[in-house]
Amino acid sequence: GLVGEEDNLEDMQVRPPVVTIMGHVDHGKTSLLDALRETDVASGEAGGITQHIGAYQVTLSSGARITFLDTPGHEAFTQMRARGARVTDLVVIVVAADDGIMPQTIEAINHAKAANVPMIIAINKMDAPGASADRVRQELLQHDVQVEAMGGDVLDVEVSALKRQNLDKLEEAILLQSEVLELKANPNRAAEGVVVEAKLEKGRGPVATLLVARGTLRVGDIVVAGAEWGKVRAMVDERGRQLDEAAPARPVEILGLNGAPSAGDDFSVVDSEGRARDVSQYRQQQQRKRRQFTTPTSIEGMFSQLKEK
Ligand code: GDP
């Protein structure tokens, strides 16, 4: 759960929602992520959200904030879920109004249902010839998704990512749904969260995007992330700005780990380098053991293991 054992209710503060966008190929996931990025009002002289660090946070004119996982498709969501990470508070399912429900739409609906994460339907491409929002609503009903107009409680919004239409309405729906979820976290504790992505970069070393779930992450903190550890040397946000600290639901790119962890790994701040080294060593041992002992139990198993390599 989001309330850690040692968190008292009075320490909990409202935090922004974390949103994943899913849907059928070509229905406009990438376009919508790009369009939503531009709704950020806090960019100012920094020149907008320009960095692709795997997640970004927009600040709306109301001051409300929303964090979007910037990886379209279902891969990131399933990868994180496979590792037991629950980072997404709600899923926006994009459906092209000129195409309707397609196989990956159904897959996305099933993912959201299996994860017990509420969904919002973005009926996209409303500007396109042949667009019909009503047809989409009918088709959704056939897949047990009842939007408000059909007597259900799933929010839907008609948008055009291309023409930048109704993006504010979509954001309103996200915030409305978030209020119902009462998303809170304790910012006054050692930070914990999830690795969104990580890579080795020439000249910079291991670079990891972390999403803080609870607590506040600070430069100088000693972090264990998956089987890697390090001291946070620098933190940068999606606008390329240097940060000293990162609050719950804020994605940040950090430098200072000794290796690249995997997307979906958890991270936590520990109180000493010795402790960090111990945990990291133990986890690396576990990883080696797991690799050593995954013996195929069938011919099919053997083939699928070979294919993975
Ligand atoms: P993805 O595969 O779901 O990420 O889809 P993309 O964002 O790559 O979009 C697929 C195609 O649909 C591109 O050619 C986009 O320009 C187009 N597209 C996306 N959103 C809209 C929209 O609101 N209206 C129209 N007419 N086309 C759109």
From TrEMBL:
Binding-site list for GTP: 23-30, 70-74, 124-127
Subcellular location: Cytoplasm
Residue span, Tr-type G domain: 14-184
Known function: One of the essential components for the initiation of protein synthesis. Protects formylmethionyl-tRNA from spontaneous hydrolysis and promotes its binding to the 30S ribosomal subunits. Also involved in the hydrolysis of GTP during the formation of the 70S ribosomal complex.
Family: Belongs to the TRAFAC class translation factor GTPase superfamily. Classic translation factor GTPase family. IF-2 subfamily.
Full protein name: Translation initiation factor IF-2
Organism: Iodidimonas muriae
Taxonomic lineage of the native organism: Bacteria, Pseudomonadati, Pseudomonadota, Alphaproteobacteria, Iodidimonadales
Gene (name only): infB
Parent-record interval covered: 381 to 689 of 894
